[in-house]
Every structure is written in structure tokens, then in C-alpha cells.
Amino acid sequence: MNRKQKRMLARIVLAAALLVGLAFLPATGALRFALYLVPYLIVGHDILLRAAKGIRNRQVFDENFLMAVATLGALALAVYNELAGQEGDYLEAIAVMLFYQIGELFQSYAVGRSRRDIGALMDIRPDTANLERDGKLETVDPDEVPVGSVIVVRPGEKVPIDGVIIEGRSSLDTSALTGESVPWGAGVGDEAVSGCVNLSHVLKLRTTREFGESTVSKILDLVENASSRKSRSENFISRFARAYTPAVCCGAMALAVLPPLVRMVGLGLSPNWGDWLYRALTFLVISCPCALVISIPLTFFAGLGGASREGILVKGSNYLEMLSEADCVAFDKTGTLTRGVFEVVAVHPEKNPLRGAVGNPQRGPGVPDRQPAYTDRPVRGAVLVGCVGCSQAGASCAACDAKASLPVGGGKRGTLPGGPDEAALLHLAAHVERYSTHPIANSLRRAYPNEADDCTVEDVEELAGLGVRARVNGKLVCVGNAAFMDTLGAAWHPCARAGTIIHIAIDGEYAGHIVISDVMKPHAKEAVAALKAAGVKRAVMLTGDAPAAAEPIAAELGIEEFYAGLLPADKVAKVEELLAEKAGRKGRVCFVGDGINDAPVLSRADVGIAMGAIGSDAAIEAADVVLMDDDPLKIAKAIRLSRRCLGIVRQNIAFSLGVKLACLALGALGIANMWLAVFADVGVMVLAVLNAIRAMFRI
């Protein structure tokens, strides 16, 4: 509990103790009234002050006004009874105020719990940075660190500004940003984003952004402004309360005046002013809209806090509400369902041309003059996996895809455990592409990282639109596309595997090809299945890749509908088509992208969801929901969380209105007393608040 909550609890306990003591104290008349007035003021003085302030500011009709009028009226009625020679019941007025404050305490605690998750996120903002200047460290404000400066992050410290590691290796805790509890290792060349915690070793970073533009600042700005974007449910409750409160005040006044007048003037009976005034006061307490006014915003706030703990940042409760209605999700492919990093997935060498082309990477110069057992060996990192097939030179590779891929072992860095022809082909391609910066060249070098051998590479030339050629050990090696092979007169053949085909020729003779493809994210297939299980009726993939590359990815993921060869403007047009199909029908269209190239379509969809948004300005700016890591499984989790949140909102609305309407009818008929009114107001509020707290728990 915070200090304010502790003070409120102390007031409640003190007032309750005084009430118990007064029950055994024999006092009458003015002394009795004065004694009971003490616990009433202890527990309710702040409500009276807020009501008076509202009247002064011409904002009269709120729950403070209703509670003040009802309890002061009950006290006045008790005094009237005392003056009439009867025992006045002061306990009801004090009990109403006491239980109302108990409800307020529950609300404050619930808000504190939901703020705790967001508060933990807010703690990621560092207060200082260790700036290296002239070989010395200076502790400065992060705002004073210019781009390109060198900062030092010690173990246990937060990374203050986005930067690239230039010295050191350590584990970084990103749980405050992503919700992922497992630290990840980072070394020279890796990016460290602000808000991460350095766990083990000293790191030196060269800053890439100013503090105000860093990831942590943008995230905090997003969270701080989330509560300002109200949902339709919250706006409805606000409008409802503005009309409802004056209406019940007029109704209570009519209940206190009209029936006695009718009895007295029309029927000639005793007016019973005290009885009808009591009913009116009970009516006021019952009608107080606390449960709705408090529990609905609290539910959304708790939902936003629970989502933040999961690494899901929602820009406002309005987006949380729209996300709960999602029944169509459109995906970008690259960077969303796939890693966006090309890797070598298969190596298809020919038999004869490789002989003697390069030094054997395992046993020195010269590939053995033999016919290897020809295999298709896809490469993952420095590990080959293989399947039997392609056993005849010049044949189609369709047979490879009909065979199951089986792991064949690991090996040390730079050592490929396949046959020598596969290693030689990769070796050649990596040498030729050594100086290229193209992503395909990078993938070849990653597949064969060890180039420390006795091969000589000369006359490297990159031919635009064709590929690269170079002399390796005196032989002319050409690496490129099919058009390049045609210009050489090399008899290449197609491959049935999906991906980019890199052909290799040695001295004009075809030597084989390498298949390079984008790699699917580990949970992508599971994420699509989870969306369907969550009730999403339609999953669509939108990609700029060619249909031949998109189709196998969509089939493997279980996505029946995909559109390929799309430019960013085409993706916007396709999402607009999906929105037009939804026009007039219930449901929302979500688009999931990487937040950089997909900013226009993220903005156009009903709900834009950015994947892997750490360090991505475009994602934070354009998206409505930001997933702080690139796990696609969190899309379904975000939808389930939003639906649970909206379910709790509907439960609270139905329960609160149902109980209040029933008790209002009983109060008007004189069946309900002030104690039932306390339950109808405070009891319902407490139950609604406890129900709202569920929105912050993990699912």
C-alpha cells in the first residue's frame, strides 16, 4: 500500500472503532449527535469537500454530491426524530460513508496493482549516462549525449541510449521491453536498445540516436498517452453518468415531495414526510453510479497494464476494444512470418566440374578425384542437413523435395559435414561473393564462414543484374542468376525448391546451384493456428515476393489466401478491399507488419500491429499495437487478452445496472432500507472492482 491508501485505511479503522465504542456509550440528545458526528467527519470529510468544490465549480452532479446529500439528509432525519422524542439512527449515515470509503480503498488498490506493471515499464528510463570523453568517464544527463558518442554501461546498469556495441560482450535483460525473461547475449556489432539491463560485463556503445528519439523515450510516451484514448464503452459510461446523475436527483426530489403532497391534498391522509424523505435518501444512495464510473475505466486500465507486462503495448483502450472484434488478420511476410534474413537452404552440385577447382577446406589443396554419393544438403548456419536425390547430372531437382530432410550432424565452425562437392561449391561461392554487400552474399558467407585457406581470389567483378565473377586458383568462377549462365553458355537446369537460385559455373561449365531462402520464424505456424483457435475467421498474407516464393510459405503456415508481388501502395489497396468487404458487418481488419516498410498499411487498417518493434521508429509511430519482440504468438495472446477485457466490461455493466434497477424499484416502494442501499452502491462497486482486477492477470 502507498501512503495515501494507508491513511485511508487508518481513517476507516478509526471510524469503525469509534462506532463500536459509541454503541456501548449511554448518551442522548445533542451530546449523542456530536459524538456520532466525529466518526462521520473522520471517514467522510474529503467527500464533503469534493462535493462542495464541485458545487463551487458548477459541476454539481457526481457521486460525491450524491453521497454527501444522502448522508447529510440521513443525519438530518435522525436529528428530526431525536427532536420528535424518538431515537435517531445516526449509524446508517455513517455506515454509508464508511462502506463507500471501503469501496474507494478497493478501487485505489486495484489501480495501484494495474499501475505496477506500467510503473515497472516506466522504471526503464535511465537517469544518467557514463560518457567517455578524452579517456575519462563523465556521468551526465542522457539528454546531453550527442549521436556518435561512446558510452560505458557497467553490469547492473540500464542502457541509457540506443547504440551499437563496439567493445565487450554481455547478457542483456530485455524483460521490461519485451516481456521475455530469458537474457540474450550481445557482442561487438550488435545493437543495444535503451531500457535493457546489462547483466554481466562492461560494454562500450557508440550511440546511434539522441535520448529523446531513443526506444525507451518513444515507448514511455506511448504508455503515458495510452489512457487518453477512450474506448466506446468508456465514452458511453461518461455520457450516461452526465445524464443519469441529474435524472436520479430529480427523481429523488420528486419521491420526497410528490407522494406526501398527493396523500395530503388529494387523499386527505397524513403526508408522512419523514418516511418519504427516507425513501428518497435511500433512492439517492442506491442510484450512485460508482460501480460503472469506476469499474469500466479500471477494467481497461488493468487490461493495458496486463498487456504491458506481456510485452504488448496498446496505444489506448479504444484499440483494445477494436482488437477484441478482430476476425480478419492480414500479415506481411518478410520480417513478420519469416525472419527477413536470407539463408542457404540447399546445395545442389554437379558431379564433374568441381574436381580440382578449390582446395579442400578440410584436408588441403585438391578435391579427391572420385564420384561422391550425390546428396541435396540444405544448410542451416554451419550445419548441413541432407536428403538423397539429384543423383544424375543435369536432372531436375524435383526429386529432392520428395525426400525427407534428415540431420546429418554439426561439425566445427567452417567445417561442413557433407560430401566434398557440397563444401567445394559453397567454398567457391563464398570466395567470389567475398567483397559484395548484397544480402545474398552475406548469406553465402554465413553458410561458409571459414575462408582462411590457401585459395587465391583475383579479378573480382560485379555485373549489375547478373552476378559476380572472379578468378579462384586461376579458374574463372561465375556466381549469379540464370541469365548470367545463358551469357556464358552454361547448361543450367531449374530447381523445384522454393527460394532464390544461385547458379555457379567454372570456366564456362555448369557446376551446380545453391538455394537461398528467407527462413520462417519458429512460432509462425503455431501463431496462425492460435489465431484460428481464437476465432479469427480469415488469415491473409500480403507480400512483395514473387508467387513462387510466397506460395510454399503460405501453404506451410496454413494460410489459404495470399497475394504476392505487392508494392506498399498495393498492400494499402488490398487492405482497403478487406475493409470494404467488412463494411456494414461486425468485425475488424488487423494488419501485422514489421513497422518500417509497412507504415502506410499499418495506419490504414482498423488495428495496426507492429512486430519486433524494438528500435523501429516507424512501428511505434504508425502502429496501434506494438509487440516488443518478434514472436508472432503474441498476436493471438493480444486478441485473447482484449476479448477477456471487453467481457469483463460487459459483465460489470450488466451486473451493476441490473442490481441498481432492482434496488431502485424496491427503494421507491419502501421495501429497501439504507443498508440495502449500501449494498446496491458500495457492495456492487467492490464486486465490480474485484472483477475488473482480473483483466491484469496473465492468460
Keywords:
Calcium-transporting ATPase, cytoplasmic transduction domain A; 699 residues; 6-stranded antiparallel beta sheet; alpha+beta; 7-stranded mixed beta sheet
Can you describe what's shown?
With 699 residues, the chain is of the alpha+beta class. It folds into four domains: 3-120 and 228-301 and 644-696, no CATH class; 146-209, Distorted Sandwich (Calcium-transporting ATPase, cytoplasmic transduction domain A), CATH 2.70.150.10; 313-337 and 521-628, HAD superfamily/HAD-like (Rossmann fold); 340-520, 3-Layer(aba) Sandwich (Calcium-transporting ATPase, cytoplasmic domain N), CATH 3.40.1110. The chain contains 21 helices and 26 strands. The protein has a seven-stranded mixed sheet with strand order 10-26-25-24-11-22-23, with helices on both faces. A six-stranded antiparallel sheet has the order 2-1-3-9-4-7, with no helix packed on it. Helix 1 runs antiparallel to helix 4, helix 2 (29-56) runs antiparallel to helix 3 (63-83) and helix 3 (63-83) packs antiparallel against helix 4. The relative contact order is 0.11.
List unreliable stretches of 5+ residues.
359-396, 398-418
CA-CA gap between termini? 25 Å
**Which overall shape is indicated by the principal axes computed on the Cα atoms?**
elongated
The number of domains: 4
- The neighbouring-strand order within the major sheet is 10-26-25-24-11-22-23
Question: Given the structure, what is the number of helices?
Answer: 21
